[in-house]
Amino acid sequence: MGGRKRILTVFGTRPEAIKLFPLVHALAADPRFEGRVCVSGQHRAMLDQVLTVAGVAPDHDLDVMQPDQSLDALTAALLTGLGRVMDEERPDWVVVQGDTATAMAAAIAAYYRRIPAAHVEAGLRSGGIRHPWPEEVNRRIIGTIAALHCAPTETAAAALRRETVDPATIHVTGNTVIDALHWITARIAERPQLVAGLAELEQRFAGKRIVGVTSHRRENFGDGMEAIAEAIRRLAARPDVAVIFPVHLNPNVRQVMNAELAGLDNVALLEPLDYPHFARLIDLSCLMLTDSGGVQEEAPALGKPVLVMRETTERPEGVEAGTARLVGTDAARIVAEAERLLDDAAAYAAMARAHNPFGDGRSAERIVELLSTT
Ligand code: UD1
Ligand code: UDP
Prior knowledge:
By secondary structure, this protein is an alpha/beta fold. Helix content is 47%, strand content 16%. The protein has 16 helices and 13 strands. It has a seven-stranded parallel beta sheet, with helices on both faces. Strands 10-9-8-11-12-13 form a six-stranded parallel beta sheet, sandwiched between helices. Helix 4 runs parallel beside helix 5 (135-145). It is globular and about 65 Å long. The model has no long low-confidence stretch (mean pLDDT 96). The structure holds uridine-diphosphate-N-acetylglucosamine (UD1) and uridine-5'-diphosphate (UDP). Uridine-diphosphate-N-acetylglucosamine (UD1) binds next to helix 1, helix 2 and helix 3.
């Protein structure tokens, strides 16, 4: 149909799907656009969980995932596959999110075709290229290519300006993760059975304080994962604590966690939870222990303290707001920081304040307006 802008939204992993479904919904509802969706299938089951919950039916699915995939083989498959889709679709814009291999390859494939790319969640920087690895470099590459930078916060926008990105192309939109969280919270309120899958654990752990855990960063493989498992084992030895840990499907995570934690009384190792159940887990937890990017944004929004098991963060806003704390991957330090929150009510209260530096739930709306006028 003449006149409508054709927008190709590209994503491949769980967090990209969560942070882009609000935009996919908004584009589909807006007659000014023809929204097209390409998933790379960099993740499979974990991506499909989000597509199902959000009701997104991709127009293209490259299905690239291989077990324990290497970064170079993955990137090569993405680049050629995404290029083919762009040749077929000839979009006016390609939209990518975050810092995954899919996002980086899509930005490069768009650049090779002189198609403008819009970057959602632009400007996050840890300052070091080894943490997070390889995401810090992925997002810098996208930053040099994108024609529209949708920064979640003023801090992220400032980072882009420091890199001499044209200020006219940088816009603070908030993070679409808050849109996603609002959407899913409303769905759960309408249909509480969406989170019924946790009821049995809620009963089993009644009276205990629940610590929610996730972990998957490549730079934590090996020693870091062992230390995280050790910290969880020590925390779960307390009779007043129960750990609920949906384990990422990456074999480098699962082998360690299954070997170290399976069968412990106060630890529930689960398959990855779909988004409503994960939102419910944050709600049930008194604190979150994580190395995830998205969880660092969601937990503060829901008023839950989050201990970040990483050396650096590209999301300083939660730390500055006092709801997140960097604790590294030393087992003793993780346990000490978690116990401080469990045993010191004042320390807990100081962190457990709902604070939302990452957005107001209207980011997708702003991005749609930018795409309509740019
Ligand atoms: C990827 C992203 C990372 C993001 C994370 C979110 C890159 C380089 N990494 O890391 O930035 O934070 O996703 O979770 O883009 N697997 C499955 N089923 C799935 C998903 C993964 O079996 O649904 C297994 C496969 O063996 C796969 C492996 O996990 O090869 C690794 O997946 P990959 O996307 O390469 O890396 P992640 O660590 O998930
Ligand atoms: N998440 C989920 N189920 C889980 C664990 C996480 O739906 O079992 C969601 C979580 O709410 C967040 C996103 O997945 O929105 C984070 O993904 P992940 O930690 O895999 O990647 P990162 O954010 O670190 O890139």
